[in-house]
Amino acid sequence: MPIQSILQALVFVAGAAIVARTLLSAVRAFILPRGARDAIVGFVFRELRRIFNLLAPKDRPYRDRDRIFAYYAPIALSILVVTWLVLVLVGFAAMYWGLGSRSVGDAIRLSGSSLLTLGFATPKGGLETVLTFIEAISGLGLAALLVGYLPTMYAAFARRELEVNLLEVRADRPASAAAMLIRYHRLGRFDVLAHEWQRWETWFAEVEESHTTLSALAFYRSAQPEHSWIVAAGAVLDAAALTRSLLDVPRDVQADLTIRAGYLALQRISDFFGIRYDASPAITDPTSVTREKFDAVAAELEAAGVPLRPDRDAAFLNFNGWRVNYDRPLLALSRLVLAPEALWNGWPERDEFGRFGPTPGDAG
User: Fold this and answer.
1) I need a labelling partner for 77 at 20 to 30 A (CA). Which of 42, 289, 340, 356 fits?
2) What is this structure's pTM?
3) What is the rounded average pLDDT of the residues 281-310?
4) Can you tell me the distance from the alpha carbon of 314 to that of 182, in angstroms, rounded to the nearest whole number?
């Protein structure tokens, strides 16, 4: 067999492999009902993130970075679809050339005409005709997948943001576990915390499912700069952990279930993004919440009249036993999505008015 024929056969097979791999990437991203990491999707989001990090460096004010990064996920999705289309075009062009009847330029023109259903180039022979039909269907299918994907994603985004926005009423902005508990104490409504934990248990389950199957959703930012799904998750988990460890109130097993739902959700989202953490930590393992930070919040709660347990050593050990399950995933995901900094989420101390607030974050 002539070398030219061997080369054409190899190029044809390579083109078919490119097309198959591209379509598999689209299936993983848009259709597969479970989280599945994909190299093409990861490459697009990762390389675009490098560009956005240059456009919004760490020394810029957080609100400026938030405004720029609001475009990150939508642009990444748009570029992802274009990348798929280009790969399909290249793959089919390789197959047309591999059939041996066209030059490289003619193969590319036929591929572009077929993919975009323009019709200015016509196939030669039966096999080329079949390939052009397959390519046209592939192009239309990728466009249809994106059109069908966006409403599903925005519906999940709306459900997520409803609770995030409501949390500001209870826990200020950015959300703070201490502010949440003080507000419920002032209202004399610790009795409704069980209902609060139950709502957030459901929220964590929904976020886990949506942020692994629709991974771009993790990077969609809230309408308010100081709002964030990951900050809300941390505030609720810390509030539940403080309730179970520090507050002198009757035990509520719903708080335990909410904490477990929360750290499982954050761990599984971390698994999807390749974030490493200790899956079996010990209760005494250190976390980012030191004893000094814990005592500062305890003093704030005590000053507000919140009933606290007298044994602070035991309270801190118990709190640490809960926090150690989600500390690393929480902080890593906060950096990944460029979340605003909040209580025990990278914000080290208060300003001159005693308030927590956003500062330039670490996008990683």
Assistant:
1) 340
2) 0.87
3) 95
4) 21
